[in-house]
Amino acid sequence: MDAIVSAEWLKGEYQKSDVRLVDATLFLPAHERNAREEFEAAHIPGAVFLDLDEVADLNSGLPHMLPTPEKFASRAQAMGLGDGSRIIVYDNSPLKSAARAWWMFRIFGAHQVAVLDGGLDAWKAAGGPLESGRPVVRHRHFTVWSDTSSVRDLAAMRENLKTGAAQVADARPAARFAGVDPEPRPGSRPGHMPGAKNLPHTELYTSEGRLKDAEGLRAAFEKAGIDPAKPLIATCGSGVTAASIYLAAHVLGARDVALYDGSWAEWGTQPDTPVVTGA
To answer: Cβ(114)–Cβ(5) under 8 Å?
Structure first.
C-alpha cells in the first residue's frame, strides 16, 4: 500500500471488510477545539477515533511520547483494528497529525497503513459521505510488536550533535526555530539545536492541505538545505509535526529517516543541552 491515498480512491475502498479508518485529529490548547467532539459530530463512515494525547507514555512527563507496544496493541484492539487490516488514517488538524499516527502504526507493526491526502476536507470535497455519533466496534487481535529503528532519544541526539552523522530537520514555525517567538510549553528555552535546519511542516503541504507532489517536496527540502537522500532526523515541538517531514522523506524514497520523539519538549527543557537562536 502506498503511504498516501486519495479521497477518490478511498470512496471505492472504504466499505471493504479489511479497510479500517482512523481519525487521528489532534489539537493543541491554543486551537480551542475538541477533537473527539468534532469526530463525534462528523466523521467518515466506519471511522474510529485515535486520541494521540492518550495513546502515549503518560508517565514520561513529556507530551505525545510513544506508548509501550502493549498499550498500543490494547488501544488498537479496542478500536477494532487487527492484524491484516488496511488502515487509513486522516485528520482535520493544522498539525497534520495523521502523519504521526501513520508513523506510530508502522512502528507497532501495521504494515498496510496510509494517510488520506488532504484529510477530512478532501473527503468532503470529493463528495464523500459523513456520519455522526460514537462507533460500535468489535475487538480484533492486534499483535504486540515494535520496531524502534526509526526512533531517536535524547542520548542519540546528544551523540549526533558530536558526530553530525545525520541532518536534523526541525518542523516548527520559523519564528519558534529562530527563538523569536516563545515556546508554548513552560520551561522550554527558545531556539533550536546547533546545526539543525528549519523545515516548517506547512511547507510540505499545498494550500488545500494536500501533501505536495514529489517536485514540490524536493523543492521544500532543498530550500531548507536538507538532502532527504542522506541520513535525516526529524524533530519539532513534541514529535507530531516532525512526522510530516518523515512522511515526506519516505514518499521521496528516503530510507534512512528517523524521528526524535522527545523533540523540543525534551531538548529545550534540559539544563545542559546547547541551544542557539537566529535563522
So the answer is: yes
> What is the rounded distance in angstroms from the CA atom of residue 219 to the CA atom of residue 125?
27
266-to-11, 61, 168 alpha-carbon distances in Å? 40, 9, 15
- Tens digit of pLDDT at every position of the chain (279 positions): 899 999 999 999 999 999 999 999 999 999 999 999 999 999 999 999 999 999 999 999 999 999 999 999 999 999 999 999 999 999 999 999 999 999 999 999 998 999 999 999 999 999 999 999 999 999 999 999 999 999 999 999 999 999 999 999 999 999 999 999 999 988 999 999 999 999 999 999 999 999 999 999 999 999 999 999 999 999 999 999 999 999 999 999 999 999 999 999 999 999 999 999 998
Which residues are part of the catalytic machinery? 236
Find out whether 224 and 197 touch, Cβ atoms under 8 Å. Answer: yes
pTM, two decimal places: 0.97
Give the domains, in start order, of the chain with CATH numbers. Answer: 4-146 (3.40.250.10), 149-267 (3.40.250.10)
Q: What is the dihedral of CA 77, 83, 87, 91, to 10 degrees?
A: 30
d(Cα 95, Cα 166) in Å, to the nearest integer? Answer: 25
Residue 27 in 3-state DSSP?
coil
CA geometry: angle 260, 204, 9, nearest 5 deg: 105
How wide is the angle at C-alpha 23 spanned by C-alphas 203 and 44, nearest 5°? 110
Contact 171, 205 (CB under 8 A): no
Confirm if 169 and 244 have CB atoms less than 8 A apart. Answer: no
Contact, 7 vs 125, CB < 8 A?
A: yes
- H/E element, 153: none
